[in-house]
Amino acid sequence: xxxxxxxxxxxxxxxxxxxxxxxxxxxxxxxxxxxxxxxxxxxxxxxxxxxxxxxxxxxxxxxxxxxxxxxxxxxxxxxxxxxxxxxxxxxxxxxxxxxxxxxxxxxxxxxxxxxxxxxxxxxxxxxxxxxxxxxxxxxxxxxxxxxxxxxxxxxxxxxxxxxxxxxxxxxxxxxxxxxxxxxxxxxxxxxxxxxxxxxxxxxxxxxxxxxxxxxxxxxxxxxxxxxxxxxxxxxxxxxxxxxxxxxxxxxxxxxxxxxxxxxxxxxxxxxxxxxxxxxxxxxxxxxxxxxxxxxxxxxxxxxxxxxxxxxxxxxxxxxxxxxxxxxxxxxxxxxxxxxxxxxxxxxxxxxxxxxxxxxxxxxxxxxxxxxxxxxxx
Length: 377
Known about the structure:
Elements: E1 24-29, E2 33-42, E3 45-55, H1 72-85, E4 92-97, E5 102-110, H2 114-128, E6 136-142, H3 147-155, H4 157-162, E7 166-175, H5 176-188, E8 192-198, H6 199-207, E9 214-220, E10 225-231, E11 234-241, H7 245-255, H8 260-270, E12 275-276, E13 279-280, H9 281-284, H10 286-307, E14 313-317, H11 326-333, E15 337-340, H12 354-360, H13 365-376
Parallel strand pairs: 1-4, 4-8, 9-14, 14-15
Antiparallel strand pairs: 1-2, 2-3, 5-7, 6-7, 9-10, 10-11, 12-13
Helix pairs in contact: 1-5, 6-13, 7-8
């Protein structure tokens, strides 16, 4: 598990994967579904061999699409069922760990050598983590300085005299119990390899690609919406909104006086378009969406004030990105270009599945990013 932040900066382009022949799995254990993607290698490119998804709601006596909090035993059962139903026999697997179960924090520290930094990071982590450091897996990564920031520092002689050089460091921590939980789930399903990754990094790998511009990845799941500001593949800021696509279903059920099951069905069929019994669906679902866009804009504004850099492109990912009308609504609420992610475009896929995979793609972003990392490793 050591070094779970390694290779964040590795190429996101599948064509750079060379000399690999073994098939691998990327497994995204979300709150409402498990998604798997199986990749192999052919002529230096990653090739889609299989994929599948399984809703977790029924394992908790809930409806499809609802967020769950299943036990390890239930998650093992669900993963085993999915592998069997998808006819997957590959054993080498990479598994995601939800960002909400981790600590991710950007800190500034004095510019020192690696040996001093290694001793400094645990001290910094103690200020951030509310449990003993011995109970946590820690890793860190020094963010490369932007050239314009370096030039501004060197040009400002007064500041140079007053301020010591700083490093911006991303610290990541995962509780040992969390690691053990996901290890047991993987082993319980008969899988091998101990490759884990925080889900937002997998999503970034799958949806950003070679885009060197400053972008925001918005990964909308059932229970949460994760925001990541990324530049040239480097995470510059992250935030979690405790509201997701499930909240839209619940709001629709209340606004339209229907069951949550019916609200979920309306969401999947109409999205934010059309009417239900004469009521505009977009207006009926406005409460959680207004909150998400409000938080999103606060993050964008805060980042611009802190750094002077403005995000001009937003990439929608996760199952929530499949909501009809969401890109158009986002465009009205955010001053940025809105793009729906197409993670399957990063790999070689059957031509006859092109339209199907394009539509389903955002939901499989994390699993694809994981599988790419496993293939690289």
